[in-house]
Amino acid sequence: MNQILGKPKSKCWQRGDSPGAPVPPPSPRYSLASTRAHRHRSSVAKLTHHPLHKPSEMSRHVCLAAAALMAMLCLAEAQRRLALPDPRSCANRVRHSTYRDARGVLHSYFFSWEHAPTRNLEVDWLDARNICRRHCMDAVSLETPQENEFIKQRIARGNVRFIWTSGRKCNFAGCDRPDLQPPNVNGWFWSGSGAKIGPTTQRNTGDWSYTGGYGQAQPDNREAAQGNDESCLSILNNFYNDGIKWHDVACHHVKPFVCEDSDELLNFVRSRNPALRL
């Protein structure tokens, strides 16, 4: 996946994405990956520290294998964090379209289904962000009605069933601020830009669907009963005969994605690579 749009380095940031915070809290790791890593670490610990385990040639091989497994698990867990941009990938990023919104902000966009190497690629929410971020972009943030319509038209033209955006519900450490309560109403924000999304009870501040799997207005956190918090924002294309609308979806689901230029990441790379043409 690291070489889909370029050849990024395997570095990562550990900064968070809390909306409107000058110093964001740590970004949450993907719970499934963390749980899986913890489970494997426990198994490795039992294997290498059993009270009846005697030193032997075989035990040394087991310990080496266990160490290798631990290294792989640590790498896999680290990869669940936000990725750093790769300068070369940023300079060579694919740009399918540009759009200037009502505020005068001009950004380039990448649509995964319009690029041959990613035409059939579907990834979870964090992987979508990281593919974008390695190229000085981020998953799209729909901050104006005009930008929202621009993206919806592209979805309709490509006959795409659903996509990931950077929309996120603030339901992790650091999200206990009064202005973010309750999270399903006041906790939504665009993680790509840090801008807050209006209260979900004010239907004119977003493009949430009026229905979903349970026939309830979005966001409905429908998978909460299964232990999956629907904390990521996806655009679904008439999935419930409701048109092209916003839906809250559990972040582990896989979908195509849209990338948008990130001024923050472009400035970050530009400041360290002044001769690089971005």
UniProtKB/TrEMBL annotation:
Residues 1-36 are annotated as: Disordered. SMART domains: CLECT. It comes from Chilo suppressalis (Asiatic rice borer moth). It holds the Pfam family Lectin_C. Keywords: Disulfide bond. Signal peptide: none annotated. InterPro entries: C-type_lectin-like, C-type_lectin-like/link_sf, C-type_lectin_CS, CTDL_fold. It comes from the Eukaryota. PANTHER family: RE43931P (PTHR21407:SF1), RE43931P-RELATED (PTHR21407). This is C-type lectin domain-containing protein. Residues 107-260 form the C-type lectin domain.
